[in-house]
Amino acid sequence: MTSLITRAAHGLAAVSLLLTPIAAAAKSANDLRDLVGAKAGQAEGDLESRGWVNISTHKDDYSIQSYWWNRDRKNCVRVTTSDGRYQSINDVSNADCNQKGGSDGTAAAAIGVAALIGAIALASKSHHRDDKEYTNQQDYGDFERGHRDGLYNHSYDNNRRSSAYSEGYQSGVNERNQQSSYRPEYSQYRGNSQRPAQYGGYNNGGGAVDVSDLVGSKAAGVESDLQRRGFRNVDNVDGGPNQKITIWWNGRTRQCMQMITAEGRADSITDIQTHPRCR
């Protein structure tokens, strides 16, 4: 019994260390400030000569985010490149470079999520969530699960109605779209919000976009989610002091949705099929 208790205590200690902010590591971004504004090709050579190794690079329509690891410093930085020059260099979590340890609790939470989902490395990086720090490990896990689902074109599966999952899914869809835009068959859509892969697994098999998971959520968040899934608000109806009716149209799927909002939440979202402004 004593040995069992001892092992349990050790296990709890390990979990505690995983979730506890890690001691501050050496910062490196300030030492690299001389590279900001330099041409990317030259600056990359300077980084490598200083012992930095490129771990991953992510492109969007406006900038390039690259993550660099320094083994001696045990530090990870993110370089933002725009118009062919380094625009900024920032210290980020070591988890962004697929390394254990880090400078804050974000890194610990990220590593905990990786262990929780059985992943060697997280698919998402700090720029995917705009450096947002969630308040608990579950939200980090939801974001990562959503990001992976969107990135690999899996179905949208947000049974917990987690905003973190929704945000992660959209970031994954965006990343997948960007990767697709560099393939020849998608090159004509680069920079176009209507590129074929935009909605990823939001497309619910039969062509319609599933919105049932949004019912009961706060109206402001639902409206943002509807927009991300390809809908636009085409009409507003005053339903009384505590109720509002809005009409949403998706031209790609030909869905005409009526959302009834009561007390600040989406009470129902129904496909009414026809409306004068659904066209």
Number of helices: 6
SSE succession: HHEEEEHHHHEEEE
The chain-level structural class is alpha+beta
Question: Overall mean pLDDT score?
Answer: 76
Low-confidence stretches: 1-25, 116-120, 182-199
Q: What is the molecular shape?
A: elongated
Separation, N- and C-terminal Cα atoms: 71 Å
The strand count comes to 8
Q: Beta fraction of the residues?
A: 15-25%
- Give the helix level as a range of percent: 25-40%
Oligomer category: single chain
Radius of gyration: 22 Å
Strand order of the largest sheet: 1-2-3-4
- Biggest β-sheet description: 4 strands, antiparallel
Outline the structure in words.
- There is one protein chain.
- By secondary structure, the chain is an alpha+beta fold.
- Among the domains are: 119 residues, no CATH class; 67 residues, no CATH class.
- 30% of the residues lie in helices and 22% in strands.
- It has 6 helices and 8 strands.
- It has a 4-stranded antiparallel β-sheet. The chain has a 4-stranded antiparallel β-sheet with strand order 5-6-7-8, with helices on one face.
- The longest helix is centred in the middle third of the chain and has 19 residues.
- The N and C termini lie far apart (71 Å).
